[in-house]
UniProtKB/TrEMBL annotation:
Region entry Disordered, spans: 1-28
Residue spans of biased composition, Basic and acidic residues class: 1-10
Stored InterPro entries: F-box-like_dom_sf (IPR036047), F-box_dom (IPR001810), WD40/YVTN_repeat-like_dom_sf (IPR015943), WD40_repeat_CS (IPR019775), WD40_repeat_dom_sf (IPR036322), WD40_rpt (IPR001680)
Ranges occupied by WD repeats: 215-247, 248-287
UniProt KW Repeat keyword: yes
Keyword Transmembrane helix: no
CDD domains, sorted: F-box_FBXW7
The organism of origin for this protein: Ataeniobius toweri
Stretches assigned to coiled coil: none
Name of this protein: F-box/WD repeat-containing protein 7
Domain F-box: 109-155
Keyword set, alphabetical order: Repeat, WD repeat
């Protein structure tokens, strides 16, 4: 079942499978105001922690602690802040570290996971594609959201990418894992534009081997390149290293045309013959006679 794209208050579309958040999880503005934590203990309860956190096991509490706490509670907010500043200044490093370990986790909330999926997706529409890719590395649920196909369709619409070019699910995608054709289309278009604007500017690789003779034909298959020349030979090159792997000799005239399929090479020559070669071994498999003049063209179809 396809989900429709609703629009937010600013007119931006966002995925929506539900029109309203209903049920026990719905919070009205008044309930939000009432549920706002006022103390650190309230914050612990709001985050789902126990009201009684684990205490430091350092023996019985010091005398006068309760009186000191009662006095602290009678002070105003600014007075408490001043008292805390003075207290921190008098603490040792290990004690400040203990306070950080207790306090910091309480303010680290995964607000995206707490939102309904529709609202979480709407929040993610404001992120740039680069930020979406980083958000997908946060956790499994964030990855599911960041891979949403409609979310990436919106990003493609913003960039003027009109279709997914019939992307197929790749074999490397794990079964059950989310796959977004629109995300693949966006990344492909981004790579193309990046290559055009900031592509590799290395010097081209120059393959030399036919000396001063004319190169009359050239074919390639995979990492192999086969060139024919009027020096009566063909040469097999590595497209990775640029080195000449082997030379195919046997023609008594210049090579004028060639065809290649896999490791099989067929060449035509002014010696009125065609020859079938194994590019891997350099061996001439067949010599085909019959023409009474130069073989200038050919086409390979199956065998």
């Amino acid at each position: 079942m396809k989900r429709k794209l609703d629009h937010g208050p600013d007119g931006r579309p966002f995925p929506s499978g539900k029109k309203h958040c209903k049920g026990n999880g719905y919070l009205s503005p008044s309930s939000l105001a009432q549920a706002t934590p006022t103390t650190f203990g309230d914050l612990r309860l709001a985050n789902g922690h126990s009201a009684q956190r684990r205490r430091v096991n350092s023996g019985p509490p010091p005398s006068g602690l309760q009186d000191w706490l009662l006095t602290f509670q009678t002070w105003s907010g600014p007075e408490r802040l001043l008292a805390l500043d003075e207290l921190i200044d008098r603490c040792e490093t290990s004690q400040v570290k203990h306070m950080m370990q207790v306090i910091e986790p309480q303010f680290q909330r995964d607000f995206i996971s707490l939102l309904p999926k529709e609202l979480a997706l709407y929040v993610l529409t404001f992120l740039a594609p680069r930020d979406l890719l980083q958000a997908a590395q946060t956790c499994r649920y964030w990855r599911i959201l960041a891979e949403d196909n409609l979310l990436w369709r919106e990003k493609c619409r913003e960039e003027g990418i009109s279709d997914t070019v019939s992307y197929r699910r790749r074999d490397c995608v794990r079964p059950g894992a989310s796959f977004s054709p629109w995300k693949s289309a966006y990344i492909r278009q981004h790579r193309i534009e990046t290559n055009w604007r900031k592509g590799d500017t290395r010097e081209p690789m120059v393959l030399k081997g036919h000396d001063d003779h004319v190169i009359t034909c050239l074919q390639f298959s995979g990492d192999l390149i086969v060139s024919g020349s009027d020096d009566n030979t063909l040469k097999v090159w590595s497209a990775i290293t640029g080195k000449c792997l082997r030379t195919l000799t046997g023609h008594t005239g210049g090579v004028w045309c060639s065809q290649m399929a896999g490791a099989t090479v067929i060449s035509g020559s002014t010696d009125r013959t065609l020859r079938v070669w194994d590019a891997e071994s350099g061996e001439c498999v067949h010599a085909l006679y019959g023409h009474t003049s130069t073989v200038r063209c050919m086409h390979l179809h199956g065998n």
